[in-house]
């Protein structure tokens, strides 16, 4: 039975802006009253220095746009970004678009029909019999079930699969308000845009997907929400999220590693979705990791913000340059859901 291996990653990002500039030239005027001073503190302690935006608020304010207009813009911006990421991933894997047996697209920031999967398959020249899957509204952890589906297909069919995670969070800046809404401030301070593609093949060099696993605590389903409103998609983000992660993350990781005869001390690469500085601090504490273990995750948050589903793949791409032997991926999102994956380097 073939071992599914990540043979190539491709990253595409729109232009970036500094967090300080975003605050001083846009968000400092976006918030008012007591909300403004709170927002300034949250932006300053977000762990973010630079972020990318397909629709940069310094150039174009979408906060008063209706959802319909935002969705039209999503298709305009997401298509070339996805095309660039996919092209780079296929090149890295030494494959052509016609070799892809399954094409999976993950996105929670836009709707379009025909979707990105169909439009990109057409524009890139994928075969007519290429199977497609669209994963929507899973949020920040979607890359991992996407990799799981790709892995299952490769194992069962012996053909390559391609995963694309593409998010345009910049389209969902909410209208300004004097009302204190900490959840919206945090969302505005953290989120960013990116597209990352991964090619999974049967065997060869790269990182083998040893297992993808998850746990969902449905008693906390209201702690993280992503609601479709007349003014784009609105984030709900409870401050209790780190507490939920602290209850589940150690058992999830230890059980995963035990099934493969290994322990945390033998993991030399940690790709932890940086939902924010507190999330990383909780994971570091609960897993008793040394400070340097999450350096790649903190650097990704610093340089790129929270890009939702592509973020954990950005971290894997960064880690892979140092060629660690074993990587644990962790991502979190609505549910509350925790996902983990174990990657082992294949020579």
Would you give an account of this structure?
This protein is an alpha+beta fold. The protein folds into two domains: 4-202, Peroxisomal Thiolase, Chain A, domain 1; 206-346, Peroxisomal Thiolase, Chain A, domain 1. Helix content is 38%, strand content 26%. It is built from ten helices and 13 strands. Strands 5-4-6-7-1-8-13-12-11 form a nine-stranded mixed beta sheet, with helices on both faces. Helix 1 (19-30) runs antiparallel to helix 2, helix 2 runs parallel beside helix 6 and helix 7 crosses helix 8. The longest helix is centred in the N-terminal third of the chain and has 27 residues, at 67-93. The two termini are 18 Å apart.
Task: Reconstruct the topology from this structure.
Layout: E1 4-12, E2 16-18, H1 19-30, H2 34-44, E3 50-52, H3 67-93, E4 102-107, H4 116-124, E5 131-136, H5 143-157, E6 161-168, H6 182-190, E7 193-202, E8 206-216, E9 224-229, E10 232-237, H7 241-259, E11 269-272, H8 277-286, H9 295-304, H10 311-320, E12 326-333, E13 337-346
Parallel strand pairs: 4-5, 4-6, 11-12
Antiparallel strand pairs: 1-7, 1-8, 2-3, 6-7, 8-13, 9-10, 12-13
Helix pairs in contact: 1-2, 2-6, 3-4, 7-8, 9-10
